[in-house]
């Protein structure tokens, strides 16, 4: 994997897949970016430049672990853009990585050509998901054989009386089959410190970010999964309303990883937006 040096001297790695104009891809987690794969075949349309965030994948652990904070990771994305010699670029963020992509766009609007936020995390803009919203969405899966145990675990977590996060994994996929189980296991974050410090105090300034996004001139795509408890469609719609030029797409029968649930549909939608 190619590497570059961040502003604080940390060595960071990235993957390159496909041909065509580049898209900088920011994973969630923070986790090894390998879980993104080639985003359902999006690499057939564009060159995917996928960053391993510091302390994950092949990237080095920083000496200053406070640099795991989301707002500070913006500098790493900017360093990668400069390393690649890109005056402007398309930017894609998934899940928690959408918080990072959003903050990057707010801070560096002139370098972003298009912004794609996939089943986005929304802490950067202060959009919350209510427990009742998650419950209503979860009930759409009531016919699934795994539903009773998963819903009971969700209720306990929502009420603050449970912590069996593994039990609710099926809710994050359109189909809880062998491929989904394998993907979920492979994509679990390994660096717990990076996860814990990503949203540490000071990582987000929703008011300032919202104000910056109101002046964002880049076209923006927000793609939600119909069944995604992490980023419910109605909440992603609230996020989309913060941009002056945003397109909201809801992928049917998809969860938090829509390229796993229906690769062709996902890749076609994102490629059409980027082109």
Task: Give an overview in words.
With 275 residues, the chain is an alpha/beta fold. The protein contains ten helices and eight strands. It has an eight-stranded mixed beta sheet with strand order 1-2-4-3-5-6-7-8, sandwiched between helices. Helix 1 crosses helix 2 and helix 2 packs across helix 7.
Shape: globular
Mean pLDDT, nearest integer?
96
Q: Give the structural class.
A: alpha/beta
Unreliable segments of 5+ consecutive residues = none
| Fraction of residues in β-strands | 15-25%
Q: Spatial order of the strands in the main sheet?
A: 1-2-4-3-5-6-7-8
Distance between the termini: 27 Å
- What is the succession of H and E elements? EEEEHEHEHHHHHEHEHH
Radius of gyration: 18 Å
Q: What does the largest sheet look like?
A: 8 strands, mixed
Tally of separate helices: 10
The total count of strands amounts to: 8
* Fraction in helix: 25-40%
Could you list some keywords that capture this structure?
single chain; 275 residues; alpha/beta; 8-stranded mixed beta sheet; 35% helix; globular
